[in-house]
Design goal:
The structure holds two protein chains of two kinds. Chain A is mainly alpha-helical. Chain A is about 70% helix and about 0% strand. Chain A folds into two domains: about 100 residues, RNA polymerase sigma factor, region 2, helix turn helix motif (Rna Polymerase Sigma Factor, Chain: A); about 90 residues, Arc Repressor Mutant, subunit A. In chain B, strands 1-2 form a two-stranded antiparallel ribbon. In chain B, α5 packs across α6, α7 packs antiparallel against α8 and α8 packs across α10. The chains are: A mainly alpha, B mainly alpha. Chains A and B meet through α2, α3, α4, α6 and α7 of A and α1, α3, α4, α6 and α10 of B.
């Protein structure tokens, strides 16, 4: 029978590090997907997966079981991603203009004004999506990725981000609002 | 019923709000239906942004990479301070501080409590790395908290208070050993930890923003991350020869 997360966690806490292997193998793919969507980069995502599991192992004594192990792990992964994104943003600030929210100006925009002809090709439309996602603030991006791609409810997103449900909901709303502002003109052009 | 706003439509799209009144309104209101269709178009388009699917053995590969870095026993919250790793580190820190004091009075060249220099350095690296990681967690939790109303930081405060004394010891030890990069970051960290520890437990949004901005403006999280990475790199060669501590 497949070992539950709770059983594996209990064994790790009891001093059996091999039990951690079950948790790593079970959750690596989903943590990778989250990290990739947060960073937009495969290498960074792989580094974040390792950092997340190492950090989770060191802190497993603090896991109190109130949330599921995967929620707790996502919280660590989200924090690792946020640290990386913020550090990267600071490094880029000298080269890239930022607005008052600390977001890169123009990061969510395509390289050139899309024409209906160009956007008739779905491949080109796809090229707008990644910059649009990367143009969100780190908090908005995390909240959106968890809601849209991971299917988490608002309460669970709040637990992952360590904020109340209202704040989590607000981050999702702001993310959607910005994505619409960036993508809607292009999508409308493609339809006309 | 008045028109649905964008936030209500977002909740509807994600199935977070199952309200028959909303359904009825959408069925009857062309404007809101058009608004929802436009929103749906954007959000459905985002589905095309696929993440690469790692190979099915990816989990095993991650395990192979991290297993050598796992200690035999992870810290437990209730035994944290009594874990062998930390006890050794704490004992060594105490030995270092006592020795540093004695060295100043007796002899600059005297060996410290029988510990060789590489062993002393290794213990200090592990202890400081551990300390930085716990400090980083507190700061990250505060920075990531987006609450708009009053914020209760009593938990973070308690943990910051616990870390201040420890931080002071590590800072002094780093200063004495001439590690200016580490002592400088610990110095900045100490001021931030003190500010958190001495703030009121319940902060209004302006007070909380001030603390958060202080953390962000000074880039302390980034500095901690850089120092931690450097410490881990310095830790590596020593760790690889200590087979007893690795899996």
């Amino acid at each position: 029978m497949e070992q539950s997360d709770a059983t594996a966690v209990a064994q790790v806490r009891a001093g059996n590090p091999d039990a951690y292997r079950v948790l790593v193998e079970r959750h690596s793919h989903s943590v990778f997907r989250l990290a990739f969507r947060m960073t937009g980069n495969e290498q960074d995502a792989e580094d974040l997966v390792q950092e997340t599991f190492l950090r989770a192992y060191r802190q497993i004594g603090k896991f109190d079981g109130r949330a599921s192990f995967s929620t707790w792990l996502y919280r660590i992964a989200a924090n690792c991603s946020l640290d990386l994104i913020r550090a990267r943003k600071r490094r880029q600030e000298h080269q890239t203009p930022v607005n008052e929210d600390g977001e890169e100006v123009g990061a969510a925009l395509p390289a050139a004004d899309p024409t209906p002809d160009r956007l008739a090709f779905s491949g080109e439309l796809k090229q707008l999506l990644a910059p649009a996602l990367q143009g969100l603030s780190p908090m908005e991006r995390t909240a959106f990725v968890l809601r849209h791609y991971e299917g988490m409810c608002i309460e669970e997103i709040g637990r992952v981000l360590g904020v109340n449900a209202g704040a989590a909901k607000h981050s999702v709303f702001r993310a959607v609002q910005k994505l619409r502002k960036t993508l809607e003109p292009a999508l409308s052009s493609a339809r006309s | 019923m008045k028109h649905l706003n964008e936030d209500e439509l977002v909740l509807h799209y994600y199935g977070e709000r199952q309200d028959p009144a909303v359904e009825r309104h959408l069925a009857a209101c062309e404007d809101c239906r058009a608004h929802l269709e436009s929103l749906t178009r954007v959000l459905d388009a985002m589905n095309a942004l696929a993440a690469p699917e790692p190979h099915e053995t990816y989990g095993s590969r991650v395990w192979q990479r991290i297993a050598p870095q796992l200690t035999l026993s992870p810290a437990r919250w209730w035994t944290g301070w009594f874990a062998p790793r930390r006890l050794v580190a704490a004992a060594a820190m105490a030995a270092l501080l006592v020795a540093a004091f004695l060295a100043g009075r007796v002899s600059q060249r005297r060996q410290i409590a029988g510990l060789s220099a590489p062993v002393r350095e290794r213990i200090l690296l592990v202890a400081v790395g551990d300390h930085l990681e716990r400090s980083q967690m507190i700061l990250a939790e505060l920075v990531n908290n987006e609450s708009k109303g009053p914020v209760d930081i009593s938990d973070e405060q308690q943990r910051a208070e616990d870390l201040v004394g420890e931080n002071r010891l590590y800072r002094q030890a780093a200063l004495k050993s001439g590690d200016r990069a580490v002592s400088s970051v610990l110095d900045e960290l100490e001021r931030v930890l003190l500010e958190i520890a001495h703030s009121p437990s319940k902060l209004d949004s302006a007070e909380f923003d001030e603390i958060r901005q202080r953390i962000e403006t000074e880039g302390i999280l980034f500095k901690i991350r850089v120092v931690s990475t450097n410490l881990r790199e310095r830790e590596m060669p020593a760790a690889s020869v200590k087979a007893g501590r690795t899996l």
